[in-house]
Amino acid sequence: MKRFLIALQFLTVLPVRIKSKVEKNDFGASLLYFPLVGLLIGLLLVLGAFIFSSFPSLIKAAIILIISIIITGGIHLDGLADTCDGFYGHNPKEKILDIMRDSRIGTMGVAGVVSILLLKFSLIASFPEGLLWKTLLLSAVFSRWAQVMACFSSSYARREGKAKYFIELAAKKEFLLSSLFTLALFGVFMKLNGLILFVVSLLPTFLFMQYMKKRIGGMTGDTIGALSEFAEVTVLLSAFLIR
After folding, report:
1. Which phi-psi region, left, alpha or beta, contains residue 149 (left: φ > 0; alpha: ψ -120 to 50)?
2. pLDDT tens sequence across 37-64
3. If you average pLDDT over residues 217-235, what whole number do you get?
4. Burial 43-75, CB ≥16 within 10 A → b, else e
5. Residues 6+ apart with CB under 8 A from 112
6. In whole angstroms, what is the distance from residue 22 CA to residue 3 CA?
7. DSSP per position, the chain
């Protein structure tokens, strides 16, 4: 339960109280529960879609998007903004890391956040009701699983930081079990199309992760957040294309 609460605390703004002492290894082990937290987030989005199902599609899409930002506190959007600012241009690694650590948001950060939100909004508004709830669930799960993949397959690009222990202590067991859980959900909710959706979404997500790792020699909390946002919109877009 403690490790699940760590994942819940890290990925959402839901009030969480962890009574027992948290050890370093608990951060890596908590990655097992990232897709499960993604499922809970997805269920809240589906609930919002159900409550506002009688609203016009554009209004409903906006409400769903707002709910997702409120639940997560916009933490991954913040990472996306910092990543867009840092990676713009041909800066060396240290310069990129310095820009990403700056609390101020630049032009490319704003452009990146606006672009991803516009794409999410238009895609959510375009789905028929029967496909919308499945896609909301799976995109939320997949994006959190993508964070597990990034932590397991990467080294930490900084000396210190919030994501340090998640990346350095990520183990094969948590990665494999979270992968099986995620893949199973895709199969359960969308059957063969779900497995196709997983593979189609995985390729661009993996390539984006590799690009970021090549630029800075690993991953940071910001780039993991950017990857999560990219993975989420990739599932939405892929589901729209193969529906």
Report:
1. alpha
2. 999 999 999 999 999 999 999 999 999 9
3. 96
4. ebbbebbeebeeeeeeebbbbbbebbeebbebb
5. 80, 81, 83, 84
6. 9
7. -HHHHHHHHHH--S-----SPPPHHHHHHGGGGHHHHHHHHHHHHHHHHHHTTTS-HHHHHHHHHHHHHHHHTTHHHHHHHHHHHHHSSS--HHHHHHHHH-SS--HHHHHHHHHHHHHHHHHHHHS-HHHHHHHHHHHHHHHHHHHHHHHHH--BSSSS-TTHHHHHT--HHHHHHHHHHHHHHHHHHHHHHHHHHHHHHHHHHHHHHHHHHHHHSSB-HHHHHHHHHHHHHHHHHHHHHH-
Cα separation of 224 and 175, whole Å? Answer: 15
Q: What pTM does this model have?
A: 0.95
Nearest to 16 by CA among 7, 24, 26: 7
For residue 75, give its domain range: 2-14+23-242
CA-closest candidate to residue 185, choices 167, 170, 198, 203: 198
Residue pLDDT, tens place only, 165-198: 899 989 999 999 999 999 999 999 999 999 999 9
Structural domains in the chain (count): 1
Q: CA 68 → CA 62, 118, 136, 171, distances in Å?
A: 10, 14, 10, 29
Residue 242 near residue 127, CB atoms below 8 Å: no
Beta bridge partners of 219: 156
Is the separation of the CB atoms in 170 and 28 below 8 Å? yes
